[in-house]
TrEMBL record:
Protein name per the record: Sex determination protein tasselseed-2
UniProt family annotation: Belongs to the short-chain dehydrogenases/reductases (SDR) family.
Xref: SUPFAM superfamilies: NAD(P)-binding Rossmann-fold domains (SSF51735)
Lineage of the organism: Eukaryota, Viridiplantae, Streptophyta, Embryophyta, Tracheophyta
Keywords: Oxidoreductase
InterPro entries (alphabetical): NAD(P)-bd_dom_sf (IPR036291), SDR_fam (IPR002347)
A Gene Ontology molecular function term of the record: oxidoreductase activity
Pfam family, one: adh_short_C2
Length: 306
């Protein structure tokens, strides 16, 4: 039954080739990430930790795709400069994510300025102390600080975004986690625990929010040589130059061959996908962008006898 149908389809497609190609091109063009695509047209977004690195790249990609973006951070001068660079669809406001009231205010600012909030991107984060400790020497003051900036902030961001999204029965919340939250032992335990908690928060709230038309997802990047990534490594390798640290991330930690290196724009485009209507049924997901790093571990194979 299938074979004749396939032959018929193949014959038909051969005759209609030019139109089909044109259709494919325009379809492909629609989903492309070219600078003129408008996958977030008319949407209003708040991004925390947007003055640099992945957050800055995400703000740029959101604006390029037609969103109005409120960038927030604690680096005010840098944040204002980045927003100015991005043009009239971007604005900057201070928001220290360790303070729930400031997260609430950032959400309220989006609603006051644009009438609604469509995308809340809980992105800001810190490494915490990176030097490896045995469990007995774990610094719990550092643990509390890191959990407040990375995990508690994501929960507060979900809470306040939901406050304005649920009544409209629409919205998308994205939380930045990490491969360090997927696998144990990649970096210092405190950071890994904080990012595992982010993934846990996404899973804990996805069911409730999904029933109100609001999606909540995580993105877990692997190592990228941003200031964040390099600062963490610098603590572990204080003698290494910046160039050496960058090579450690882009070569030593790289999973992909063929000269492919993970860049901030790759994470920004993952965020555009999750924020867009193309992901309308994607909820409670952790979108891992790691070149396959977390899918397996090489078995310790015994050396062949003799
Ligand atoms: N770069 C990587 O290798 C990597 C990998 C996985 C996950 N991540 C995650 O990506 C996020 C940011 O990383 P990045 O690489 O863009 O680093 P980055 O240092 O360039 O950006 C982090 C931003 O967060 C801001 N920030 C720090 N504390 C804040 C606070 N209390 N309130 C508001 N803003 C604050 C900083 O000022 C900075 O602009 C973090 O959540 C991090 O855990 C990074």
């Amino acid at each position: 039954m299938f074979r004749p149908m396939q032959v018929a389809i193949r014959g038909e497609s051969r005759r209609a080739a030019p139109a089909a190609v044109a259709g494919f091109v325009s379809h492909y063009g629609y989903y492309s990430t070219a600078s003129n695509s408008q996958r977030l047209a008319g949407k209003v977004a708040v991004i925390t930790g947007a003055a640099s690195g992945i957050g800055k790249a995400t703000a740029a990609e959101f604006v390029r795709n037609g969103a109005k973006v409120i960038l927030t951070d604690i680096q005010d001068d840098l944040g204002h400069a980045v927003a100015a660079e991005l043009g009239p669809d971007a604005a900057y406001a201070r928001c220290d994510v360790t303070d729930e009231a400031q997260i609430a205010a950032a959400v309220d600012l989006a609603v006051a300025r644009h009438g609604r909030l469509d995308i809340m991107h809980n992105h800001a984060g810190v490494t915490g102390r990176m030097a490896m400790h045995s469990v007995g020497s774990l610094d719990l003051a550092d643990f509390d600080r890191t959990m407040a900036t990375n995990a508690r902030s994501a929960v507060a961001g979900i809470k306040h975004a939901a406050r304005v999204m649920v009544p409209r029965r629409s919205g998308c919340i994205i939380c930045t986690a990490s491969t360090a939250g997927v696998l144990g032992g990649i970096v210092a335990p405190t950071y890994g625990i904080s990012k595992a908690a982010v993934i846990g928060a996404v899973r804990a709230f996805a069911g409730e929010l999904g029933r109100h038309g609001v999606r909540v997802n995580a993105i877990s990047p692997h190592g990228i040589a941003t200031r964040f990534g390099l600062r963490g490594l610098a603590e572990l390798f204080p003698e290494a130059s910046e160039g050496e640290l960058k090579r450690m991330v882009e070569t030593g930690m790289n999973e992909m061959g063929g000269g492919t290196v993970l860049e901030v724009e790759d994470i920004a485009r993952a965020a555009v996908y999750l924020a867009s209507d193309e992901a309308k049924y994607v909820n409670g997901h952790n979108l891992v962008v790691d070149g396959g790093y977390t899918v397996g571990k090489a078995a310790n194979k015994p050396a062949p006898a003799g």
